[in-house]
Specification:
The structure is a homotetramer of 423-residue chains.
Chain A (H helix, E strand, L loop, with lengths): L31 H19 L4 H5 L9 H20 L10 H5 L23 H21 L2 H34 L22 E4 L2 E5 L15 E5 L2 E4 L5 H9 L11 H10 L7 E4 L2 E6 L2 E4 L11 H10 L7 H9 L11 E7 L25 E4 L16 E3 L8 E2 L3 E3 L2
Parallel strand pairs in A: 8-11
Antiparallel strand pairs in A: 1-4, 2-3, 4-12, 5-6, 6-7, 8-9, 9-10
Chain lengths: 423, 423, 423, 423
C-alpha cells in the first residue's frame, strides 16, 4: 500500500512554471514547442496523480457523482481523440473504436455513452491498457502539433487549450473521487501518508468594498471558460468581506452551539438533506476516541483547529453564516475583493461557496456542437464557488473562475469565507 | 357532479373592491370595520372556492406537493388560532387541541406536525367539522377585532394582515391542487363546467429598457412579504422584454420543431426530469382524437392556440427560450418593465418564470419566531416567478411580488414571456 | 364521529342463518328465492359494514395493499355487472361504461384498469353515486334471477355463487383496510366504539395426529375456490398441534426475552423487514403511558393478555415458533386437526399462519378466462393461512379454505397456533 | 485479456478423483493425508478459477446479489480462520484482524460486517494481498491437520468438511458473478474464449413414477448440508418426469408463441418482475444482427438450439410449464426420478427449478452458533433447485442436494425439466 510523492506539493504557485499555462492563443509566431510542453506538463500531472493507485484503486466508482481513476485517465484522452485527432490529424488511426462508447461522459451530441453510474463496472480495458491508450494519443497529438500547417494549427490550438483545462479539472476530481472511495473502506487507506493540508495564512478583519458599478467576467488574452463571458457591468453594494477563511475551530464552535440540530438555522432543503444523510459534522469527520478526526488523503487524522474547514456543503455554509449573523458573499463581491488583493488564501486551500446561484452571464450563448455542452447546460440548481482548492492543479484557477456544485455536495474541498452588507 | 359559480370571475381587478385590501397598517384612527370586512372577505372567498367540492373531493391529496381542500380550509384557520387567538384573545377556548398537530404545515418552531405526505389520510375531522372549526375561529377573530384595546390591536393587525395574505395563497393552491387531483381521475371531472381561461390582451413587440441603476423591492405603506425587502439598488442592463405572453400557438411550433426531443435545447437537470416524467407537452395536455386537449377546471377541453401557454416548468420555459434564441427576463427586468406599464397580461393570467434564482435581497434577515419560517428558508433550488395567475385572488399580487417554485414543478398556472439583451 | 352497531356481532355462528350460504349448485329444483335471499344477505352485509363510515372515510387508501371502502363497494358491484349482467341479462343497460376502468381490480383479461395505488384518488363517483350503482345492479340481478330460463340459470348460478364469496372477501378487507387507514390518523378514531375482540375459548394441550396418508382438499357439494382442488392424498407425519391459539400474554413473554432484537430467531428476509419497518411489537401496538396499547376498531385500547395475538406477520410467527422451540403446523396438519374437531378457536378469531408456502394442489389448472385469474396467479412468495378471523363474514370459511398473504404483511387479523413433530 | 485453461473441463465426473471428496467423517483411522489433499484440491480450484482474471476484474461487484472475485477468495479463507484456526490451532497468529470485518458475509453471530452492497469498494487489500492471506491460512490449516491430536481432529474435521463444501459453493458463484460483471461491459469480454457449454445427452420421453410413500433426505456416511435432514417419509403421487431438459429450441417456440407478452401465462409477481426488468428472453440474451445471441463465459455467442436453456428465473420456468400445459416437478419427484437413474443431464448442465418452495424438512432445527446461519434462515420466498450446473465443482452435488434461489433471480445457470401428474 505504498505511496509515492505524487501529490505532495500541489499549490506552490511561486515556483517557476515554464510549461503551463501555454502561450495566449493569439500570440504570433505560434510557439509550437511551448504548446507541446504545456500538453506534456498536463498529461504528466494526471499520471503523477494516478501513480500511487493500484489497478484495484483505479477501478472503482464509490458513488454516482464520482468516477474511477481509470475512467478519468481514459476520458481525458478520449477528449483529445474525439475533438482533435479525428478531425485534424490526417491518417490518424483510432486506438480502439469501442472505447468511444465507454469514455464519452455527458456529451449527448457526441453520441451514446456508458451510463454514468456504471463506470466502475468496466474492468477491461484495464489500467495498463489505458496507459497504452494515453501513449497512443500523446504521440499523435505530438505529431499534430509538430506537423500541422499554420491554418490547421489555428483550428487546433483552441481545442487543445480547452482540452488541457478540461484534463486539469479531471485531475482535481481524480483526487476528490479517490478520497471518497477510500473513505468507504473501513481500513481508511492513505493515498499518500505524507500528504498534509496547507497551513492557513494569518489574516483577520475585512476588506470593505465601497460599492458601485464595475465590470466582471473574462478580459484579456488568457484562457477562460465560456461561462465567464460576456464581460459585463455589475452593481456592487457596500459590503465587507472577511480576509480569512472560516476555520475548523470556528466550525467546532458552531457544532457546540447546536449548529446541526437547530432547524431555524437551515434552509428547508438543507435541513432535509442533513436529516436524510445524518450530518453531524463536515464530510469525512468521525468521532475517534478522544475527539474529532477526519478521513484525509493521508488516512484518518485528528482535526486541526487552525485549518480552514472543508468538505462543507452549501447548506452547511449557509447555516453557519446564519448562525454567525453574517452572509456569504456573492460571486461578484468575492471577485472584486480578490481582484483588489484583499483576501487571504483565496486560492489553493478550499473552494469557497458564494450565495450566487450558478446562472448565465447576460447575453451568454453556448457555442455550437458538443463542446457547447461544457458549462451552459448545468445552469440550474447549483451554486457558484470561487477560488481554488488544494487539489486544483497549478495554473488552473484565476480570479474570474466560476466553479459550481449542487448545494448538498461535499466531497470536494469546499469551505467558506463570510461577508456582510454595510447598508 | 354539479358546480356552482364559485370561481367564475376571479380576475376582475377593475371592479369596486371595498373589502380588500385592508387599510394600511399605519393608518390612524384604526378602521376596525374595514379590517373585519377584509377578514370576512378573505374567509368567504376560501369557502366560495371550496363550495363546488364534495366531502370526497376535499379529502384527497394527489401528490406530495399538493394538499387536500379540507386541509387548506383547516390550516388557514389554524394560522389565526395559533398566531393570533392563543396569544391575544383573553379567555379564548381552543377549538380542539388535537387539531394543532394535524394542521400545522411546516412551521418547525410551532411544534411537531402531521407529515406532509400523509395529509390526505386524515378523514376525521370531516369537511363539516372543519366548517365548524372555521366558524369558531371566525367568531373569535370578530370578537378580538371589535373588543381589543388599541395597544393590543397594534400587535394584532400585522399578524392578521399576514394571515389574510397567507390564506389567499392557500386559495390559489386550493384551485391548483384540486385541478391536479381531478387530473388523476380518468373521467376528467370538472370543478366548474362554465369556467374559462381569460382571453389574452392583444399585444406585440417589446418594451425596451435603457439600462441603469434603479431601486427594486418593497416601498410605501402597503403590505408586502419579507422576501421583498430590503429595497435596494439593482443594475438593469439594456434589454427588451416582450409585451405579450408566449401562447399555445407558439408552444405548438416549439413542439413541432422537436422541442421535447432535442437535448441540446435543455438544461441537464431539465432533460433528466423530462425523460423521467415522459414530458412531451405542457402539464395536463393529452392527445385526444384529432389534436391536443388539456385537463382544465372545466374538464377536458381542446387547446386554444390564442391563450397563453400554462402548466410549464422552468425547464420547459428555459428550453423554449433557447430554441427561440431569446432569454427569460430576470426578476428585476420584469419588475421594471411592469412598473413602467409596458407589459400586457402581467397579472391574472399566468405566473411568469424569470431566470432569477430565488435568493435573499441584500441584507435580508428573517423575522424571529415561527413566522420567520415563511419565506427565507426556501431560498435554494427555486426560481422566481412574477405577476399572478388566473387562480390568484383579487388584490393579492403586486409589481414587487416574488413567487417561487422548483424548476420541475408545473401544476401551477405557470407560463412565460421572453426577453433579450441589447448589448 | 358516531358509529352504528354495524360490525358488532360478526361471528355468531350459532345464529340461524337462513339466507347464506345459498343452496348447493346441483340442487334441483332450483330455489330461486333462496338464491335471491343469499344475494341480498351478502349485499346488505357490505352496506352494513360501510354504514359507520363518512364519505371522507370511504374515500381514502392508506397503503398500496389496501383499498378505499368506496372502491370495495363499487368493485364488488362491478364484478356482477361484468361477469353476470353483461352476458346473461338481455337488454341490460350498463350503469356507466366509464366505471369499468375504475373498478376492475387485477383481472388483466378483463381489460385495462386504474392502477391499484391510485384507487384513493377517484373522488367522483362519490359515495352516494356508488350507492346508486349498487342499487342499479341489485335490481338487475334480481330480475335476472327471477326471470332467467332454466338453461340460463345453469350458467348464471356458478358465477353468482363465486360473486357472493368474492364480495365476502372484500367485506373482510373493508374492515381491515379501514382499520389501517384510521391507524394513520394520530387521533385514533373508532370505527365502532362498542366493538370488542371475541374472548378466547379455554383450551390447553395438544391434539396428536398419528400420521398416515389421508385426503385433503374440497369434497362434497358445497362451494369452494379452485385452489382447494383437486382433492388429493397427502402424508401426515406424527405430530402434535396445540388446541389453543398463542395469546398476547405469550407474545409479551417473547418480547421480554428479546424476541424482536435477536437475529438468530429470525428468517433472513424477516429480519430485514423487521429492521426496515422498525418492528418492536405486533402491528398497531404502541407504548401508551403505563403499558402496551393497540389501535383497534374501537380506537386505542390497552392490550388484553388473554386474547389471541393478532396483526402478526409470518416472519414474526416463525420467529416466535423458533423461540418456543416449536413449529408452525403445515396447512394439512392444520386441516386434519381441525377436521377432527380438536382445535379451539379455529374460526372467527384470527387467521392462522401455517408453514406451507401457497402453491398449487397436484394437477391444478386455473379455469379459462378472467375468472381464472382469481387464485392461481398468486402462487409464489406467499404463505397459507387457515381458519378465519373476527372480520370474516359468517358462512364464508370452511375447514379446507386456503387464505394466503405475503410473509411481511400484518394488517389482517393474523395470528398463530404452534405444533411440533413427534418423530 | 488472455485467458488460461482455467475453467475448461469442469464437469468430467468420470475422471479419477483422488482428492475430493475427503474420506467419510467416521472413517478410522483418520487419513490425515487424504484430508490435506482434499483441502488443497479445493483451495487450488478457487485459484484456478480466479487465474484468468486481472486485479480489476477481481475487484468489482456488479449487483447486490453478486460479489467480487477477490471477496470470494478472501471470504472462503476467512471462514477457515474464523471457525477453525482461531479456536483449534494453538498459537495461531491472525493474519490481519482488520480483515474480519471486511470478509464476514452474513453471519450475524460472527459480528458486524461490511454491508453486502459495498463489497466492491474495498480496493485494499488488493488481489496480491489476498493471495498472501490465502497462503497464510493454508499453511496454518496444513499445520493443524498434521499436528492436531486425535481429539482435536475429531472437532476439526466436521468444520473443515463444511468449509470445503462452502468454498465450492463460492467457486460456482465466482463464475456466475464474473459472468454477470462482464455482461455489464458493452465490449462483452471473455472469461475464457475457449469455453463451451457441454452438449446435451440425447434423451426423450418420461420416467413414470408409480407413486407411494418413500424416504427422501440425507442417508449414509457422506457429507450433506443440514437442510437435507431429517430424512423423512414423503408421498409421491403418480407422475411423469421428462428425461430431457428443456432446450433453447423449445424456448424459442415459447417466445414465438408470445410467451413473454401473455400475462395469463404468468404468476402475478412474475409478470410484474418481467415488466419491470423488460424481460423478452432468457438472461444475457440479446438480438444480434440475424438472430439471438447470448453473453457467455466465452464472450457473445450465437444461441445453440440444442443446448438446455439457461439463465431462466423461476417465473419464466413456471410460465413455460403453463404454456406447455405441464408442471415443474416437486423437489421430491425430481429426487426419486434421479435416484432411479431416469434423468438425462441431471447434473453438470443446469440447476433445475422445482415447484417446491424452499422450506424446512419436518423436525429440522438449525445447529447452534454462527454455522447455524448457513441454510435455515433462508427458508422463505425461495424455490428449490435440484441437480447441478456447468459451474458446479466436481464432487460437490448429489441426488439429495437442495439449492435455492429467489424466483426472480436468473444470473445462475438455471434451467428446467417438465413433469405432470397421472391422476
Amino acid at each position: 500500500m505504498a505511496a509515492t510523492a505524487a501529490f505532495r506539493d500541489p499549490i506552490d504557485l511561486s515556483a517557476e512554471q515554464p510549461a503551463f499555462p501555454p502561450p495566449p492563443l493569439g500570440a504570433r509566431p505560434v510557439d509550437r514547442a511551448a504548446w507541446i510542453a504545456a500538453f506534456h506538463h498536463v498529461r504528466d500531472e494526471t499520471e503523477r496523480r494516478a501513480a500511487p493507485l493500484s489497478p484495484e484503486d483505479q477501478q472503482i466508482q464509490s458513488m454516482a457523482d464520482a468516477s474511477p481513476t481509470k475512467w478519468h485517465r481514459a476520458h481525458t484522452t478520449w477528449f483529445f481523440e474525439q475533438f482533435l485527432l479525428r478531425q485534424y490529424l490526417p491518417g490518424y488511426t483510432i486506438h480502439d473504436e469501442r472505447l468511444h462508447y465507454l469514455f464519452n461522459s455527458y456529451y449527448v451530441a457526441a453520441g451514446p455513452r456508458q451510463p454514468r453510474i456504471m463506470r466502475g463496472l468496466i474492468t477491461r480495458p484495464n489500467a495498463e491498457e489505458v496507459a497504452a491508450y494515453r501513449a497512443h494519443v500523446d504521440r499523435a497529438v505530438d505529431a499534430l502539433l509538430k506537423e500541422a500547417s499554420a491554418a490547421v494549427l489555428d483550428a487546433v490550438l483552441p481545442i487543445l487549450e480547452i482540452g488541457l483545462y478540461h484534463e486539469q479539472q479531471h485531475q482535481e476530481l481524480l483526487i476528490t473521487d479517490i478520497l471518497h472511495a477510500f473513505a468507504q473502506n473501513p481500513l481508511g487507506p492513505a493515498y499518500d501518508s505524507d500528504w498534509r493540508f496547507p497551513a492557513a495564512t494569518p489574516a483577520s478583519g475585512t476588506i470593505d468594498l465601497p460599492g458601485g458599478v464595475t465590470q466582471v467576467g473574462h478580459a484579456g488574452s488568457g484562457f477562460s471558460f465560456d461561462n465567464e463571458s460576456p464581460r459585463h457591468d455589475v452593481l456592487i453594494l457596500p459590503c465587507a468581506v472577511d480576509r480569512a477563511l472560516v476555520t475548523n475551530a470556528q466550525w467546532l464552535a458552531f457544532m457546540a452551539d447546536g449548529g446541526y440540530s437547530r432547524p431555524e438555522l437551515w434552509l428547508s432543503d438543507g435541513w432535509l438533506a442533513a436529516q436524510a444523510e445524518g450530518w453531524e459534522a463536515p464530510g469525512y469527520w468521525r468521532l475517534d476516541g478522544d475527539g474529532w478526526a477526519s478521513m484525509t488523503l493521508a488516512g484518518i487524522r485528528p482535526i486541526d483547529p487552525a485549518l480552514p474547514v472543508h468538505h462543507i456543503s452549501y447548506y452547511e455554509a449557509d447555516a453557519f453564516a446564519r448562525w454567525a449573523r453574517r452572509d456569504l458573499p456573492t460571486e461578484f463581491e468575492w471577485e472584486v475583493a480578490a481582484r483588489d488583493g484583499g483576501l487571504a488564501d483565496a486560492f489553493g486551500h478550499v473552494w469557497q461557496w458564494t450565495r450566487s446561484a450558478y446562472t448565465a452571464y447576460p447575453g451568454y450563448r453556448p457555442v455550437e456542437g458538443a463542446l457547447g455542452e461544457y458549462n451552459g447546460k448545468f445552469m440550474s440548481n447549483q451554486f457558484v464557488l470561487r477560488g481554488s482548492s488544494v487539489a486544483t492543479p497549478e495554473g488552473h484557477a484565476r480570479t474570474g473562475y466560476r466553479n459550481f456544485f449542487y448545494p448538498h455536495q461535499r466531497w470536494q474541498f469546499t469551505g467558506l469565507r463570510l461577508a456582510n452588507y454595510r447598508g
